[in-house]
Design goal:
This protein has 110 residues and is an all-beta fold. Helix content is 0%, strand content 52%. A four-stranded antiparallel β-sheet has the order 1-2-9-5, with no helix packed on it. Strands 4-7-6 form a three-stranded antiparallel β-sheet, with no helix packed on it.
Amino acid sequence: APVSAPQTPNVSISVGPPSGTLTVGQTTTLNITYFNGGSGPVSGPLTTTVTLPAGLTILPGSLPAGWTVVSTTPGPNGSTLVVLSNPTASLPAIGGTSVLNLPVFTTQQA
């Protein structure tokens, strides 16, 4: 009988530059792109840890539908480690892409 390899997802993540100038007191967007290059689909949850530099904070009430902040932890040099999750996120196999437009608020000059 033929042997078939299991279909497995292989997700890579890239974070783009802010969508606008980081100005104290203003909100901008970080685009986080998820890409599935694997042979199997991704079917939630999709969980990501993002390191925000000092002076940036997430606006939990402004997250796109389905996304929640699981936790925030102080990181090195005043940064913040933010764990985000979407329990219903899905990515098709072989080239499935999704973008999280993450709203961030500038609290101080970086």
